[in-house]
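Tutorial, part two.
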Amino acid sequence: MAAPLAVTAGTFDQEVLRSPLPVVVDFWADWCVPCRMVAPVLEELARTYEGRLRFVSVDTEAEQDLAARYGVVSIPTLYVFHQGELVRTLVGAREKRAYAAELDSALEDVAAG
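Running the prediction step on this input gives:
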């Protein structure tokens, strides 16, 4: 798995809000050191959760309106969407196991309906 699919304001609805799988959206920027540090972790998690979660990314510099639309004020920020609804927000860099615990919990919440 390469880097997560980059989404834009023009593709966000289709790739995220209409996705049949829950989607993890990584709001990041190239100048953000913590964002660059967690990128390989997110790529590993994308492999681990393949078939259960989709991972996409939003460059907040290129997509400032999209970041503002979702109230992103600090990066890295991960949002988990399911069926068009925001179900989990994770702000700040974390270790792999901390992300995994949050993602597992989000999947449980989604499964419980």
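The chain has a mean pLDDT of 94. In part three we will examine how such features are distributed along the chain.
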